[in-house]
TrEMBL record:
SUPFAM superfamilies attached to this UniProt entry: 5'-nucleotidase (syn. UDP-sugar hydrolase), C-terminal domain (SSF55816), Metallo-dependent phosphatases (SSF56300)
Pfam families tied to this protein: Metallophos, NadN_nucleosid_C
GO cellular-component term (any): cytosol
Entry keyword set: Signal
Protein transport keyword on record: no
CDD domains from the UniProt entry: MPP_YHR202W_N (cd07407)
Protein name in UniProt: Uncharacterized protein
């Protein structure tokens, strides 16, 4: 575990918050389930975080997720005390994507200066791994290697990840492991011998100073096969930035372990898909995934383990039902007739707030904060003040939802983006932008010069360019990073025939011929951004996270036929099938078919784990159904209604015979495949011959492929910078500042 710095010396003059950030809203005292803590001998408990993306100050506009990283440190400390008192053990796990997505991380120079300077690394973690976001930029991965890995030393595991440093001449050195390939250790109280691995999914879009070996290839390495054969292992712990559900990587790891150790328990910790989920491979191999953005603290417990490497001899004989239930594992588990010792797995998804923390640690507002936790909370407050994250640019008149409102609608952030933010920002920029004495800040090397500044233009963006909701109230510097932390700007192709440009949006939202052709032509030939996107699931990243991958309405209907769903608003408990918090937005093979349609949601179970009459609550939140049933959320939530959205939205600017901006008029126009009739034009007579096609740079490979499919052969060299190099973060922040002022006193204080 890392050494703990003396923050009381570093921060003598800071206000020490009693808990959470001073501006954090108080959580609602909602009904809570009891923590399924495993007490006593042969018991092991875990706390799990993943995909925190810089949200270590907590959610300052959402009371149910308002605890900060210092509160988590206090919470873990109390649970460590509980484990020591009752003879059990507690381990902490983090599975990556700690960076990018919050002003606390993104607003500093270098990025992450404060996150990894007296905040994150103050939490002792027993197994920590990298995510893909640690690898996109060379500077980020170098900081991970130079700062985070040394802080956690042997606790940081990188089973399939290498990095290369710069030599004395500034040239790339040879690749080396980012951290240890695996770790073997023994728990404090029970002497449980654990062999731990740390994987990243088969990621290919990393910077060139890192290398990710495919998991399936790593499993063939001699070091891995030798590790599997080590003696006196009581538990295999597999942590990684890998989804637990429908994961070829984790399925391969499971099979590899079972080929050598048929009966040793396995526990998996996953990440990447931003969902609450629990996966059962078989009776002694299960895994948890614990959400996103520090909304969730995952808890998992195991009872019935043996300490001291004593093995798992004896116990219950596997029943015929067990064998049938484990059917698909029989090839990997050749010895299914042998005896098996029962291991009890339990899980809980803890809402990250003080109400939950007090309840599960049996503390009060007076007894909960530890000195260490308070100091870290103070460091977070100091960092936010130093970064001026409370600087207010405007005040939002109402809340706009990314996917909790149908698109299009008056409450949809995507409607606001397409109807006003993009077209008005583009119109404003192209009316005023030219490098001159009146505009000295515009760089003539990056400014996009229109021969006609009012030339008809179509603007397209992937909806995944927005990361979070836009809440009513002050819009601050921090808000800009929460809404869109991405650094890609906008690009433009000039003078595209309108007949082709007008059909690009339909192609992008149909996910039909373009992506199908890329799969057929690109895979296996290496190198292209489109190939990487298809292979790594970045196609799904074009749209906001729809939740658990692959579980769309067609899957829900299939479960319903099997008896897994009672109706569209409830599920049977007791496990089997499910996955991910419900309701969530599916990633369908053809998501456009469900745009604007409400996804199935779940009513709270009436009876599970002794919960005969769960109290009602008015607190909205996740209602998770996973392989252990529907009682995993610690807070009894009212289900939130989520809606599917298109991959991309579009706007038109400076079209003839229209107002300044003319937009798509219906969701059907954005989701259907291209047709001979223009999808963006009110009538052929008002359509220009050519337009400038402007788009978010992230989707450039798709734009070029769509145009090629439509018979227009453009290449990257034909594109240029648009919006003067502004990012989506700049565009949204600038529009709010120009458009929404604050009433007297409204913009004071924290967002």
């Amino acid at each position: 575990m890392p050494p703990l710095s003396d923050l009381s010396v570093l921060l003598p003059f800071l206000h020490l918050a009693s808990a959470a950030q001073p501006s954090a809203p108080s959580p609602i005292s909602a009904p809570l389930r009891s923590l399924p803590w495993a007490s006593g001998k042969n018991s092991l408990n875990f706390l799990h975080t993943t995909d925190t993306h810089g949200w270590h100050a907590g959610h300052l506009q959402e009371p149910q997720y308002s605890a900060d990283w210092g509160d988590y440190i206090s919470f873990a400390s109390h649970l460590h005390d509980r484990a020591d008192a009752d003879g059990s053990d507690l381990l902490l796990i983090d599975t990556g994507d700690r960076v990018e997505g919050n002003g606390l991380y993104d607003a500093s120079d270098p990025k992450g200066y404060w996150t990894f300077n007296g905040i994150f690394e103050e939490q002792p973690i027993d197994v920590i791994t990298s995510g893909n976001h640690e690898l996109y930029l060379a500077n980020t991965s170098r900081r991970e290697s130079d700062v985070v890995v040394p802080a956690y030393r042997q606790d940081y595991i990188a089973s399939n990840l290498d990095i290369r440093d710069l030599d004395a001449d500034g040239q790339d050195a040879e690749f080396r492991p980012l951290a240890a390939r695996y770790r073997k250790f023994t728990t404090k109280n029970n002497g449980i011998r654990i062999l731990a691995f740390g994987f990243l999914f088969n990621f290919h879009n990393n910077a060139n100073n890192t290398r990710v070996q495919p998991v399936q290839e790593t499993l063939k390495e001699k070091w891995f096969q030798d590790a599997l054969r080590e003696e006196n292992v009581d538990l295999f712990l597999v942590a990684g930035h890998v989804p637990v559900r429908e994961s070829e990587e984790y399925d391969a790891v499971y099979r590899a372990i079972r080929e050598v150790k048929w009966d040793t328990p396995i526990v998996f910790f996953g990440g990447h898909t931003h969902v609450r989920d629990f996966k059962r491979w078989e009776n002694k191999a299960m895994g948890i995934e614990s959400g996103r953005y520090l909304e969730t603290i995952g808890f998992l417990s195991m009872q019935g383990l043996k300490g001291g490497g004593s093995g798992h001899e004896g116990g219950d004989v596997a029943t015929e039902e067990d064998e049938q239930e484990d059917g698909e594992k029989k090839e990997a588990t050749a010895s299914t007739q042998r005896t098996k010792k029962s291991i009890q797995y339990s899980r809980m998804y803890i809402d990250n707030n003080l109400h939950s923390f007090h309840h599960h640690s049996n503390t009060t507002s007076d007894t909960f904060p530890t000195e260490h936790g308070r100091n870290v909370s103070a460091q977070i407050e100091h960092a936010r003040q130093t970064l001026n994250l409370n600087q207010t640019y405007g005040c939002v008149p109402q809340t706009y939802w990314l996917n909790r409102a149908p698109y299009p609608s008056n409450n949809s952030l995507l409607s606001l983006l397409a109807d006003r933010i993009l077209p008005e920002s583009f119109a404003s920029y192209n009316t005023t932008a030219s490098p001159s004495a009146k505009n000295p800040d515009i760089n003539p090397n990056t400014a996009d010069h229109h021969h006609n500044n009012h030339k008809p233009s179509i603007i397209l963006t992937n909806t995944g360019a927005l990361r979070f909701d836009l809440f009513k109230g002050p819009f601050t510097l921090d808000s800009t990073f929460l809404i869109s932390p991405f650094t890609s700007g906008f690009r433009m192709i000039r003078d595209v025939p309108f007949s082709a440009a007008d059909r690009v949006l339909g192609l992008l939202n149909s996910e039909g011929p373009i992506l199908r052709r890329e799969r057929e032509d690109g895979l296996g030939f290496g190198g292209s951004e489109m190939e990487r996107a298809v292979r790594e699931g970045l196609v799904r990243a074009m749209a906001p996270q729809r939740g658990f991958a692959g579980r769309g309405e067609e899957n829900a209907e299939e479960e319903k036929k099997k008896g897994g769903l009672e109706n569209n608003s409830g599920r049977k408990g007791g496990g089997g099938g499910g996955g991910g918090q419900i309701p969530l937005l599916p990633t369908n093979d053809n998501p456009s078919s469900d745009i604007g349609r409400e996804q199935p949601h779940v009513s709270l179970p009436q009876k599970e784990n002794g919960d005969d009459h769960p109290p009602t609550t008015s607190v909205p939140g996740y209602t998770t159904h996973d392989d252990l049933g529907a009682a995993g959320d610690d807070t009894l939530h009212v289900p939130i209604r989520f809606f599917d959205v298109p991959n991309c939205v579009g706007s038109r600017v400076f079209f003839p015979n229209t107002t300044t901006t003319t937009l798509l008029e219906s969701p059907e126009q954005q989701q259907t495949p291209p047709s001979p009739s223009p999808s963006l034009s009110p009538s052929p007579s008002s359509s220009p011959d050519k337009v400038d096609l402007v788009y978010n740079a992230f989707i450039e490979p798709w734009i070029l492929s769509a145009l090629e499919f439509l018979g227009e052969g453009y290449e990257k060299k034909d594109t240029e910078v648009a919006f003067g190099g502004k990012t989506m973060t700049d565009v949204v922040g600038g529009w709010v500042e120009r458009t929404w002022g604050c009433e007297d006193g409204e913009g004071d204080g924290e967002a």
